[in-house]
Design brief:
The chain is mainly α and about 280 residues long. Helix content is about 70%, strand content about 0%. The longest helix is centred in the first third of the chain and has 27 residues. InterPro entries: ABC_transp_permease, BCAA_transport_permease. It is found in: Cell membrane.
Length: about 280
């Protein structure tokens, strides 16, 4: 039970990060390989707000995603918008290069040692569940992740704004004919996906040491989650993120040596049986 709960906590990070990737790919057809670096930026922005400006955790939950999302908007306007008519490979290579640049800049300035970020007083302590001691902050991560994932799914699938976004993906010329500024919508959508990565970084900061490599260590797993769920599938990203976190936790109980690769084994099996992913649509 303890490992299942820890797996659920890991799955919460997988779900939020893969959700951002799915939003960007599903609506913009961009393979955003800089997502891990943007996740790392979210953690660093929260750390800098606290240590340089004295701004604590709760305001950082709002400010850091906005700041990271703004950098995503700048990236989309200055670089990615020039690649939409080209093959997906160009966007992947560009975002991969940008990720290396971001990581290099933070590594040169802050080094590779982790920087501590204090858990807010309101979420300190924990609960004795009998089979394990659950820190309040880790329980908060699960709750916050569920709220973010459900809210994003509802916005995209059940609101008029989400309908505009999906329509702009399918037929931008027709949507533009109705007076909707499609380029602005695309830019804001990319910024929103990047802001989700920044939010995940803020949530991760008090648990993991804030360091330039924290995104690089996680992004490969998150890409595997997105592939298993189905590239661009919002529901697939959410369900698969939580599910694979639980499977990873169970694997640590029955076969600890395989816990680091179980997600990639599942990805290989899914690609062989259903290449479009569990929730993906056949092209």
């Amino acid at each position: 039970m303890g490992q299942l709960l820890l797996g659920l906590i890991n799955g919460s990070f997988y779900a939020v990060l893969s959700l951002g990737l799915a939003v960007i790919f599903g609506l913009l057809n961009i393979i955003n390989f800089s997502h891990g670096a943007q996740y790392m930026m979210g953690a660093f922005v929260a750390w800098m707000l606290l240590n340089y400006l004295g701004i604590g955790y709760w305001p950082a939950l709002i400010l850091a995603p906005l700041i990271v999302g703004a950098t995503g908007i700048a990236l989309e306007k200055l670089a990615l918008s020039r690649l939409y008519k080209l093959d997906h490979l160009y966007g992947l290579l560009l975002t991969f290069g940008i990720a290396l640049i971001i990581q290099g800049l933070f590594r040169n300035y802050y080094g590779i040692s982790g920087l501590p970020y204090q858990i807010p007083d309101l979420l300190s302590g924990g609960q004795n569940l009998g089979f394990m001691f659950l820190p309040n902050y880790r329980a908060w991560i699960v709750v916050a992740s569920v709220i973010v994932c459900f809210g994003t799914w509802f916005m995209i699938e059940k609101t008029r704004l989400g309908a505009y976004l999906r329509a702009a993906t399918e037929n931008p010329a027709l949507v533009g004919a109705f007076g909707i500024n499609v380029p602005r919508m695309i830019t804001l959508t990319y910024g929103f996906g990047v802001a989700l990565a920044g939010l995940a970084g803020v949530l991760a900061a008090p648990i993991y040491a804030v360091n330039p490599n924290m995104g690089a260590d996680l992004i490969i797993v998150v890409f595997a989650v997105v592939v298993i769920g189905g590239m661009g599938s919002i529901m697939g990203a959410i369900v698969t993120g939580y599910g694979l976190g639980l499977i990873e936790g169970l694997t640590r109980v029955f076969y600890p040596e395989g816990s680091a690769v179980v997600i990639f084994v599942i990805m290989a099996i899914v690609l062989l049986i259903k290449p479009e992913g569990l929730f993906g649509r056949t092209a």
